[in-house]
Specification:
By secondary structure, this protein is of the alpha+beta class. The strands form 4 sheets. It has a 7-stranded mixed β-sheet with strand order 3-2-10-11-12-9-13, with helices on both faces. Strands 5-6-7 form a 3-stranded antiparallel β-sheet, covered by helices on one side. The chain has a 3-stranded mixed β-sheet with strand order 8-15-14, sandwiched between helices. The radius of gyration is 21 Å and the shape is globular.
Length: 329
Amino acid sequence: MHAFKTIFGQDKPNAPMLSLSRVEFHAFGKLLSDISDAPPLHMTMRYTLDAALRQRALDLGATDLSGNAFHSFGSENSVQLKDGPIRADIVIAADGVHSPVARCLFGQAFDHATIGFALEVELDDVQNMETVRIDLGAAKWGYGWQFPKTTGTTVGLGGLLARNNDLKSSLARYLQELKHAQACEVKGQFLPFGSFRGKPGHKNILLAGDAAGLVDPITGEGIAYALKSGEYAARSALWALERAQPKAAFSRYLYMLRPIHHNIRTASLLRRLLFSENFQPTFVKGMQSSKVLRDRYLQLISGQTDYGPLLRQVIWRLPHHGAQFIGLG
């Protein structure tokens, strides 16, 4: 909620939400910690969050073109939609991992060699409704999750698609491990798992959120980056329009994205370390014994810090391997 508050000036969106402070953290089949006083983690359903953000935009004067899909770019200042063209001096495309705008600009929405994939189920099961559970390694180069929500429990797992050729079986095993019944409906989604676009747009066209590949390469979380990149895109657009230079919006936007890109690169380095078999025992031992390391991780997932402090803590605890690891970067 930190990103939401800094952008919108209020603590939470107007959506049903469950705030939890208990986290059970596992890695590679071992319990690392069971923390009851974690920084609050806020759980909501995506469709209610999206509806709240959409309504806020409409209340501020936005025009609703839902269902009028993007088709192509027309003349210099127009966009061709399904129902006809509209004028657009600057386009901000927050159209997801399958981004039609990214395909139009670059030929494909994402890199199939580096893409991630996630599966999840929504359960009416209300056991462990007060505990967030995270399982690093439940999928290869990925993790599993159990997130209580106001309507039940979301259980899922995700990882690099190239390293997981049977995620459905992995999800079935994970549900069994958590003592949940196999759900009938399984939802799947591609995740641009840390493979962000170095060029998220062109001139007066800006890609935000998943369309720009702005997803955490360890957790797969993308909402905070979507909110921040949306803010940066809007500020860049206003900056360019104030100067009557709409084609300057992209260079401004790319400059503003630098902290996000740096954090994703740092997380990608940490991911290589965490999922290296040589380092896993040391990481597990460190998380079990070090309150500082656990606190850094909790601060990270609650949005209070970035990956830099966590990576430094991990490498500091690997004196025999740290230099070797850094040399691999």
